[in-house]
Amino acid sequence: MGTIDVVLFDLGNVLVDLGGSERFSSIFQVNAKDESVMWEKWLHSPAVKAFDRGLISLEQFAEGLLEEMQSDRSSKEFIQAFIDWPVGLFDGAKELLHQIPPVYHKAVLSNTNDAHWGRILDEMGLAGQFHSYFASNQEGHVKPDDKIFHRVIDDLGVAPERILFLDDNWLNIESARKLGMHGEQVKGVECARKILYNYNIIA
């Protein structure tokens, strides 16, 4: 598999519990039968992209997304549900991070926003758990766009083939692999643990 220097984590559905497709469908009032279609629509939503890039406010995001969904739900109700969307860390998330030997550079690459980033770092305690953080709302680009992956590669100063990227969304994995990274689709801590074991990163 080659030598890995950097373990690059997505957060949602990898280390952070978003509550599954039922919670997604409840918050966004969409059909949860096909999870992959649901997430593809999310990634291509103009309102989502603008908010995750830090270009619009939470209120503007809510209004834009509700209009895209042709929903008559109140903006206030939606905003509170959206803020509360991330449940917390999956059991064992911090323990898994601590298992990774210090020889590896641990980093985050997350599509996130002003409503969630503070909760993830402070309330869920991920501040200080990684060497590098790449948050879309601070970088101005979102996955699966190539620009944010180039930003990570350039900032870390590491060849892409020495980066292992763990993400729950296949579109993001495809983008990472296209640029030469090792990309693996992950759902939850135990899945991440197995992949890290297979790459001989943890015992």
Class based on secondary structure composition and strand pairing:
alpha/beta
Give the C-alpha Rg: 17 Å
Tally of individual helices: 11
At the first level of CATH, the class of the largest domain is Alpha Beta
CATH topology of the largest domain: Rossmann fold
Keywords: Hydrolase
Pfam families: Hydrolase
Protein name: HAD family hydrolase
GO molecular function, one term: hydrolase activity
Describe the structure.
The chain folds into 2 domains: 6-17 and 87-198, 3-Layer(aba) Sandwich (Rossmann fold); 20-83, Orthogonal Bundle (DNA polymerase, domain 1), CATH 1.10.150. The protein is an alpha/beta fold and 203 residues long. The chain has 11 helices and 7 strands. The model has no long low-confidence stretch (mean pLDDT 94). The strands form 2 sheets. The protein has a 5-stranded parallel β-sheet with strand order 5-4-1-6-7. Strands 2-3 form a two-stranded antiparallel ribbon. Helix 3 (46-52) packs antiparallel against helix 4 and helix 4 crosses helix 5 (75-83). The protein is globular, with a radius of gyration of 17 Å.
